[in-house]
Amino acid sequence: MRKPVLTIFYQFNPWNTTIGGIQTIIINFIKYAPPEFDVRLVGTGVDPKEPLGQWQETELAGRKLSFLPLILVENDDVRGLIPTTLRYTGALLKRNFASDFMHFHRIEPTLVTFKWKGDKTLVIHNDIEEQMSGSGGDKGSILWRYLPSVYFRLEKILVGQFAEILSCNSNSCQFYRDRYPEIADRITFYQNTVDPEIFYPLPSEQRATARQAFAKERNLPEDTRFLLFAGRLHPQKDPVLLIQTVAALKDPSVHLFMAGDGELLPAVQAEIERLGLSNQVTLLGTLGGEQLAEFYRICHSFVLSSVYEGLPLTVLEALACGAPVVTTDCGETPNLLTPESGVVAKERTGDAIATSLKQILDAPEAYPAEACIKVAQPSRADEVIARIYSQMLERWQPE
């Protein structure tokens, strides 16, 4: 019997280092795919000399993969004048990549693929209701916010084609069930995934030594307390607010590392300069998973100042490495954290986030690595993804 084929559709190149939870999830779906499946990815090219629209037989994370670069995207961290999703969707016109199973991580391409035969899954990565509401002053993060009624009319046309809709955000799950009761049984909450082969803690006796060595390498005092942010420098994440949070801490022993790139980089740099924090904030640029894991293992806290979220993979990665989390009250993270694994800021302000960070920095023994690791344990990528593929096999009806 032939193997079922899964084709994943998303506008990224898995060999090009960019920060993004969706990218990481897709890589996990490829890496931990069982041998019973053949996996394909319709993504993007990064080299202008590379031919587009042709299948390539390649390998990713030790797994055979058929890859087709559909459009050229040289810098995925910065938005262009024409949205990448629109370019990607347009490039699907007059093509047919239908297969036994298809996974979509944005709904727009399914306008083109609506009539393709096969078992389709939509994976939702944010709290859609909050994302579309325009609250929090984050008007520029997604263009659909200017036309929410158009978006929801389009969505209503498209959602019926999916065999399942997976969301890592419980609010989003309920929002979709209420909005589309006729397909409520197809909407499922799933755990976002963290790769245990990359994100794991240091033994407790090694962490203090590693922090001292880390500080020495960067000419910082040995008693420096490290904060970490990882994500796109994008209005959704509001990285400028993190710079204001460091100022509000008024603690020269604290140093913030920011991993990522994006359209708000100039604004972040300007705020660092304005507040005189060049000695307390380091911009790392975009890092790969293994590089990022080294920072998770030595940081005293991971911090987010987001306007809205689904369930950030960076939160799971930090917890899996034993680092407690401070977050604004958005997305699934507040439902995930326990009193020993992190703190939810009461307001989305620099002062409130700083107050939450002080709770961890002043009493690190109250947030042990073991408590953090326990929270991340149910999100092990190998286990979560195995269950999803098993359910797909149960639905498969080979011709």
Explain the layout of strands and helices.
Blueprint: E1 5-9, H1 21-31, E2 38-45, E3 56-60, E4 63-72, H2 84-92, E5 101-104, E6 119-124, H3 128-133, H4 148-158, E7 164-167, H5 170-179, E8 187-189, H6 204-217, E9 225-230, H7 239-249, E10 254-259, H8 265-274, E11 281-285, H9 289-298, E12 301-303, H10 313-320, E13 325-327, H11 333-336, E14 342-344, H12 350-362, H13 369-376, H14 381-395
Parallel strand pairs: 1-2, 1-5, 2-4, 5-6, 6-7, 7-8, 9-10, 9-12, 10-11, 12-13, 13-14
Antiparallel strand pairs: 3-4
What does this structure look like?
The protein is of the alpha/beta class and 399 residues long. It folds into 2 domains: 205 residues, Rossmann fold, CATH 3.40.50; 175 residues, 3-Layer(aba) Sandwich (Rossmann fold). An 8-stranded mixed beta sheet has the order 3-4-2-1-5-6-7-8. A 6-stranded parallel beta sheet has the order 11-10-9-12-13-14, with helices on both faces. Helix 5 links the parallel strand 7 and strand 8. Helix 7 packs across helix 12 and helix 10 crosses helix 13. The protein is globular. About 1% of the residues have low confidence.
How are the strands of the biggest sheet laid out side by side? 3-4-2-1-5-6-7-8
User: Biggest β-sheet: count, sense, barrel?
Assistant: 8 strands, mixed
- Give the total of beta strands: 14
Rg calculated over all Cα atoms: 21 Å
* Top-tier CATH class of the largest domain: Alpha Beta
* Level-2 CATH architecture of the largest domain: 3-Layer(aba) Sandwich
Q: Tell me the overall shape.
A: globular
* Poorly predicted runs: 136-140
Secondary-structure element series: EHEEEHEEHHEHEHEHEHEHEHEHEHHH
Task: Tell me the domain tally.
Answer: 2
Would you tell me the overall average pLDDT? Answer: 92
Q: In CATH terms, what is the fold-level topology of the largest domain?
A: Rossmann fold
Percent helix, as a range, is 25-40%
CATH superfamily of the largest domain, by name, is: Glycogen Phosphorylase B
Could you tell me the strand content as a percent range? 15-25%
Distance between the termini: 10 Å
Number of helices: 14
Structural class: alpha/beta
